[in-house]
Amino acid sequence: MHRSIVAVLAAARAIDDGEMLLFRAxxxxxxxxxxxxxxVDHYRSQTLRGIGDxxxxxxxxxxxxxxxxxxxxxxxxxxxxxxxxxxxxxxxRAGRGILHAEKPNGPRHGLQMWTSLPPSLKFxxxxxxxxxxxxxxxxxxxxxxxxxxxGTVAGAEGPMRLATPTIFAHIRLDPGATIPVTVDPDxxxxxxxxxxxxxxxxxxxxxxxxxxxxxxxEIELTGGSTLTQVALIGGAPAEPPILFGGPFVMDSAxxxxxxxxxxxxxxxxxxxxxxF
Length: 276
Hints:
The chain contains one helix and 26 strands. By secondary structure, the chain is mostly beta strands. It has a single domain, classed as Jelly Rolls, CATH 2.60.120.10. The strands form six sheets. It has a seven-stranded antiparallel beta sheet with strand order 1-22-19-24-17-14-13, with no helix packed on it. A seven-stranded antiparallel beta sheet has the order 2-3-4-11-6-9-12, with no helix packed on it. It is globular and about 55 Å long.
């Protein structure tokens, strides 16, 4: 059964100042989650300016970064250091709390996304892993390429393992190309258009928009007149309640308060003197 589009949500233009253009697709007034994803930022930076280059905390989530172009240095309060380049993917389980910073080494184009940890794992131990572009399976179809980061898409399984069933794939379509993409029929899915025009079941979606998809085991994707790039995201729905408190996502007001107190007390560690 082919999936159709049930709604198209325009991402908020959160930053547009000549140096950086940043679209926030989630959370929004109409939708706070697609599968486990509760935060989706799509950015292009023309300078060395970053979006997380100063030390800052996270808790209660998993943080996924994927670079389409450019590079950055990662470091955090658990002692992990890494270099991420074009086509690489990064996963951080923030759990009970971690501080990190991402220093860009030039202009960048990428995604930063959060998935909500289930209540039983909100205060789990932090962890870190990354994958080079060569580590990520790629499915080639006529006029298209699919990079699978997490979950199973088009018969390929991504190496990123998250706390709950999660799908994340990067799809490139040559002008006018049409491809079928098999997916888990039970997954809640969305297609965020990074570049170009995307058509699904006769409905065209513009860049900077998130298409919410109906159920089905296949999606037929058609590119526009120029290169089309799409992030396919979703999986098992995030377990409610979902409460946002800045960089923390918890399941209760008490747990949000606990995360803030842990950060203030330095129990998430320190990075460049933060939090004191």
